[in-house]
Amino acid sequence: MPAYLIHLAILFSIYAILALSLNLIFGYTGLMSLAHAAFFGIGAYTVAILTTRYNFNFLSATLAGIIAAIILAALIGFVLSKFKGDYYTLGSLGFNFIIFATMLNLQNLTNGPLGIPGIPRPNFFGLDSSIDFNFLLLSTCCLLLVYLICRFIVNSSFGRALKAIREDEQALEIFGYNVRNFKFLVFVISAGLAAIAGSLFACFITYIDPTTFGSNESVFLWSIIILGGLANLRGSLLGALFLILLPEALRFVGFPENVAAQMRQLVYGLLLVILMMYRPQGLMGEYKL
Amino acid sequence: MTIVPQLIVNSLFAGSVYALMAMSFTLIFGATKFFNFVHGSFTVIGGYAVFYLVERLAWPIYIAIILSIIVAGGVGFILDKTVNLPLRKKKSTNTVKLVASLGLFIVIQAFVAILFTSQFQTLSNTIEQKIYQIGSAVFTQTQAVMFVSAIVVFFGIMLLLKFTLFGKAVNALSDDEEVAKIVGINTDKIISYVFFIGAAISGWVGILVAYDTGIEPTMGLGALLKGIIAAVVGGMGSVPGAFLGAFLLGFAENFGIWKINGEWKDAIAFGLLIIFLLFRPQGIIKK
User: What is the ipTM for the molecules in this complex?
Assistant: First the structure.
């Protein structure tokens, strides 16, 4: 398989994990959070720091990343749960901003804007994943795992309660459901899953810096799940596929390097606008914004 | 203690910029009732327009500034007509409009980056940058203009809203769009004009920032967020509230970093927002 396609497939699996986890809180529960890139970043930075400076291995570093994301999500989710509607989105954007600023400013820990280079590719089951194809196996397994977890959640009574929360929170409270706990729990789970994607990303690219985890990335994730369709897991996969492949197709049009990166942004911004105007439910959505 | 006058001066200038952003944001919010993230784009447009005209085309400064303000306002007007109007007609939820505005913000940011590269640009000092001093506090001419324009814009908007027919229409529209339409106000037209005014003010902020520090395509988000924080703290929809909230924010930030490390300035701003959202969500002045 040509190296370029393998590269794309790995990126697809990483962003698919992000999309699935975001869809859990956005599409199914109705929590419109712009903070998702922050949890992606927490996972990535935890793994990067632990593997480069303290010689953790991949699995334990990833677990640490998941735990870090979960702890942070607990704090952030707790504060955010007090906000309603658009203020929730605003607050989540604020938290993303704060975490981004932390990544940029805690230079002793994160190396600031210079980023952390030299993150090692993991060695698992005896397979050396510095060969890209082996890494693809790893990321696909992770994607499968995350997909199964999400599907389990969504098809359970817990998932049904989430959808009900999205539709009419007050009604659910009257029925005696502890809505706060549900929202809290799914937010924390989603953050943990995002951290897995962060870990994969860090190990794949072997270099991370704060700019990947800013609010633009959160908006990009929004466009993936909105395009694919909210509250539809396969839709998230489709959206990720589309939005990873499309900018690559643009690459062949022959723009210079700097322009190509911005074209990706332009395209998905435009896509958001067009989707909102003409098809808010996206490709496979069950839920119209 | 001699640092205090400088802190006060810094707070006033930060507050002025935030006030301009907040007042224009809250004005548009009052008329359209959703968080319009594209507002930050007008700042970028204003800054880059003046950059292009002065640096690349060598136009005289004052004409360039006036034209840039009009361009920013014009883009706002056009965006309202092409994107917001169809969404309003479809009776889309506020969420849809918010997402669309996010998309537009990203598009404009990317577009500007393609045209002008992502690098930080500064405007050469084609205006004499005088430096003034009051006591131990120092400030530049641009910063003085910031402060004065914030006050002028504040009074301008208040007078507009209170004494002109247009202003009364805007008030009516903010109160209840349906009834305003019934009474015969052409709400779509009024909203477009409000957009023009708001976007023009936002563009003016971009020009100020361009002369104060410099421009880069991502400058819109920071200015916008501070403006939104100020507007929320002051009370969404209330222009005096936005004015007050902005200066409160400016003071909180600058006196905050007196004791805490300067890198956490933004965290202080968001902390203020969260405190207000938790304990006084209607803001300082309830609309």
Answer: 0.85
